[in-house]
Amino acid sequence: MTRFGSLTRCLALLGLGMAGTICAALIQPAVRPPRWDLVVGLGVAVVAAAGGAVLLRRGPVGAPDSGGRYWWTEQRNAWVNFATWAWMIPVFTVAYAAMAPTKDAWELVDAGSALRTVRIEKVLETKYVSGQRANGHYDSVVRVLVPFDEGAQVHQSSLTSKREPRAGEETYVLFAPSSPELGFFLGSRQSLEEMTGGRADFWTIALVLISLFAVSFLALFGRWRSDPVLGLHRVREQGRLHVLPVSVTGVDVGRDERPKTSSGAGQLKPRVRLANTELGELYLFLDQI
């Protein structure tokens, strides 16, 4: 197995671990701990990332074109760009899943929860809250009639909705019909189902998908730091890059005789003396970083 093949497998395993973690967190964000599905997904991603980092530190083997379709510089840039941004997505989804479970909601489930529609008897208070997702929402305090087994009871509770609530409109309530002492939750059907094991809301899923697309794009085409071999990359694409065997004959100090327009020309610099059977003696000047 070539090193390029090993790096490709590590990248595929990293993507699989991240995808599994993200999907598990979005399909069922509010699941009772421990979340072994998230632990396994993150574990696979960490192992793959560690393996890829080891391969990157060891560098390429053989000629620049050996081992795969892409040059080593392209592989390195893709890994660096992907690692720079991709870690944010599983961290966000895991944090979202960690904050999603509600103890009171699961107590309702244990007591035999029910999800029904109730009519808003009266709107006591409402205010609009602007948000970064969608177009904001309304935080309101409303009075509803909850149909417990012992008889319907009038309660007031907070309600979050996209539209301004009005008396007479219907909303959803999550409660345990036989246990009024456990309370209840008001909200949309999707938000209440999410509290008891349903999928994440649409805007969270859309945000994750857009982030995945952006990270993939940046990993393939983005450059987030100067590339010291970008010039060699262009020469290679033109078919003018050649590989010659050289041997190091010594290290000393010499005067840089490059053209006056170049940076640091004419200065004394450390240099490495190289030898090649065809070209003779070569000098590699070391610039300050």
TrEMBL record:
Q: Where are the transmembrane segments?
A: 35-57, 78-99, 202-221
Name the keywords, alphabetized.
Answer: Membrane, Transmembrane, Transmembrane helix
Q: What name goes with this protein?
A: Uncharacterized protein
Species classification: Bacteria, Bacillati, Actinomycetota, Actinomycetes, Kitasatosporales
Q: Which domain of life is it from?
A: Bacteria
